[in-house]
Amino acid sequence: MKTQELFSILETNKNKTLLFEYAEGVFVNANYHITEVKHVTIDAVDCGAQTDAWKETIIQLWESPNEIGKTEYMSVLKALGILNKVGQIKPYILDAEVKFEYSNSMFHTAQLFVNDFEIRGNNLVFKLAIEKTDCKAKELCGVVEELQANTSSCAPGSGCC
Predict the structure, then answer these.
(1) Strands, sheet with 97-104, edge to edge from the N-terminal-most edge strand
(2) Torsion angle, alpha carbons of 142, 148, 149, 155, to 10
């Protein structure tokens, strides 16, 4: 999801409560805060010696240990106020990919992509997901991806592990 799309969804749903689902049925707790917004420029070289560059907006979510047990989630309006204030200080690149950085005691620190969103009653739920790393130069480097016919049985020496 691009930063502009995130803002459009937030603007359209100002009267809702904002939740983040980072695994099926698992949510960032209600004691979360937006603690940092990063405007990141990636300038990369892949293993095929190809260069690439892009921008990302990374919004950090943090669960306050002083508010464990909190049950009321942040409103979309409050989140939008925080993000708009950031934009006044450091303007957003609206076509930048947006990610949410998050961790807790049960989940490692990760930058999560927004896969989708949905309205559940009075809640705006952003569905976050981890994307696996990948080789961008497969063709250049001669990497052939093989599909495993039966990944349900994985024995040593079978080639699936």
Answers:
(1) 26-27, 17-23, 123-129, 107-120, 97-104, 51-63, 32-45
(2) 140
* Backbone angles phi and psi of 2, in degrees to 5: -85, 155
pLDDT tens digit string along 3-34? 999 999 999 999 999 999 999 999 999 999 99
pLDDT score at 160: 44
Look up residue 33 and give its amino acid: H
Using an 8 Å Cβ cutoff, are 99 and 59 in contact? yes
Burial of 154 (0-12, 13-18, 19+ CB in 10 A): exposed
Structure tokens at 129: 């997901």
Please state the rounded mean pLDDT for residues 39-62: 96
Task: Tell me the residue type at 34.
Answer: I
Rounded to whole angstroms, the Cα distance separating 86 from 97 reads: 17
What does pTM read for this prediction?
0.85
